[in-house]
Specification:
Blueprint: H1 24-37, E1 51-57, E2 61-66, E3 85-87, H2 91-94, H3 101-104, E4 112-114, H4 133-138, E5 180-182, E6 193-195, E7 204-207, E8 216-222, E9 229-235, E10 237-240, E11 244-246, H5 268-271, E12 297-300, E13 321-324, E14 330-335, E15 354-356, H6 366-379
Antiparallel strand pairs: 1-2, 3-4, 5-6, 7-10, 8-9, 11-15, 12-14, 13-14
Length: about 425
Amino acid sequence: MGNSKQKIDEPFESDRHFIDATSWFDLQEKIRFTSYTGRKSNLENYSFLPTTIMEIINGTIPVFAQWNYRILCHPVSRDIPLNRLRVVDEFHTRLPYGRKYDEQAYTRAARFQLNPKDSDRWYRGFNSPSFTLLDALMSEIPGKDNYQGNLIDDAFDLPAHTIDPKKKGQKLNAALYHRLFQVQAKDAMGQSRQHRGYADENLFMAMTTQSKVAGMKLTTCKGPPKRRTCQTESQKFSYAIPLELIYLTPLNRWNPYDLEYKGDERLPHGKTVLQGGRNGGKTPDKAYNGTNSKKYYQTPSTFFSGLEVSSDAADTTKNNVGVLDKNDTVRITQASGVRIFLPEIKGVGILRQRYPIMPVHGEGSPVWKELEAVKDLLMNSQTYFYMYREPLAGSGVVPTEPPERPITLRMQYAMKTPQVRTLMKSL
């Protein structure tokens, strides 16, 4: 909470972006201008972070709160087999390119679903568990009280209990992200389970005592009018939406050339990597002088048999760069950080590291549910044939190949240090 003239509290560390404004008010004015004019800053450092009124003091003084966000990573405590994931079938990204469903997984456009059950098998219908695999993963992640947080939500004198079958009967640690809980009494509808996000199944919440988080109060009273007893409940929450699963590999630390890592690229030692106009060239005067947090190239190019996969204009990764080792020898390397796809590895193929599982805005609405049902009806017509009011017309012949697509060919980059030979001519 705070006034709109306060200096912006940068929400998290980023190599590429920051909030380009002097105050929250300045940020809102920039967002208003770009919305009004249809323009944008090419640096893309404006964030749409609204201000909200949390309470009115004495009926006259508004208390404002400023929305903020952060992107965080959490190391999960268990392995997640790849068969727990499947591609979300989105026609609008498949149809323009004539992609088959199975091909979608090998593109950047793919989104994935996490199997509700921790099972190799995917089930149809309404037999999904209340406490899903995603619930189990998110319940490891703390809110603003961090990993030591342990808070009980006992609003309305009904403490929230976990629905984790492994913790049956235990009170919910509301400091960890969750979306469902149950109480020990049924409501007017005969239900004892409650959903934090109501119809939004992708919203997770965690209680907090963090002083910078704006909270809300609720006063409830019991008893007859002349002997009513009242109590005030105060709670604070943060919200989370799962974005993606990232699979790490030993390449992050593998350093067979023993290249020197010089730390943060903004610090003096880290800056020496680029000092003197070095740009990752293949010659001693242009090769990076070691590596740093932003120029993290230490995997030998010969480890891969292919180039970067499905590159994009916004990517900052280069295919092959030269890096000086501790003996000033140029080593040809490729990036060692996280990618969407690793370049092809001989005998292994192309591996995907990042699996987006984030929702899109319309999910959960009645229109979206109806659209998804129609999609299943069309794409799985044999399974749901009994649902049709009339038999499907046509020959029943399903095309096996999409129309021909254009193919782009390009030359391979050099993956080995070039041999320099000096030609001498005798006079």
